[in-house]
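hey so i finally got around to running the thing on that chain from the lab meeting. sorry it took forever, my laptop kept dying and i had to restart like 3 times. anyway pasting the input first so we r on the same page abt which one it is
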Amino acid sequence: MSRQVAAPRGGHLEALLNGCPDAILAIDANGIIKFANREACTLTERNMNELIGQSIVEVYENEEAARTANKKIYEAGGTIHDLETKTRTKSGKLVPTRVSASHLHDSNGKYIGGVGYFARYRPWHGAEAETVHKLEELETRMSRIRSHGAPVFELYPGISATFIMGTVNAERFDALLDTLLHHVEAKQTQVVILDFPAAIEGEDLANQIVRTIRSVRLLGAECIIADMQVSMAKALEPHLGEINIIAHNSMQRAIEDALDRIGCEIRPKN
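ok and heres what got predicted. didnt touch it at all, straight out
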């Protein structure tokens, strides 16, 4: 078939198509390119005369890639969106692209060709990675919210307790302190049992414990640390001269002490 170079048609439609940021190629029923916009020339590194009249296979990576694209259009019912492929330039360079294309039919339903938009590959992986990163940040924040939500509850009128599981850090203490102080105020708590099953290390965390004890005392309540561990004892020891720290190495002893402080005790049944 002889090559037919399309004459400039002018008008708003041509201006619109030539202004499109994506390459546009239209083919006839035999796969011969009948229309190309300026971006198609730029993408393929060919001028208009080198595109019009050529087989669409020329702009694909190879014939198999062209067949695959056409097959996918049929399988999708005549239209595909964002098919990942590669466009071959005049110099042989392969440019990653995404193709959206449709088959064209006449009024009798006869296939007469197709039109495709070849968008330079704008790395979605970067956007996807950013989305995943944001989701991971959200999950981390949700995890922190859950971890900050250390349960504070009333064991007995006048006695409350809080249990902190997992990693103990300054951020968690800030959240705990806020929750704890509101609880003490609302329940008129007299004694708070602090249970830290997780190991605690570092001067910053020791300062946070001391801060918690002082803040609770300002509301008229006392703190008792249960399950005192060696690492916690070492971290708190330098503060013994500035604040009275009440601690026990078991929850049972802490509860007994708390009951005694409010004038109650546990007795066996007769």
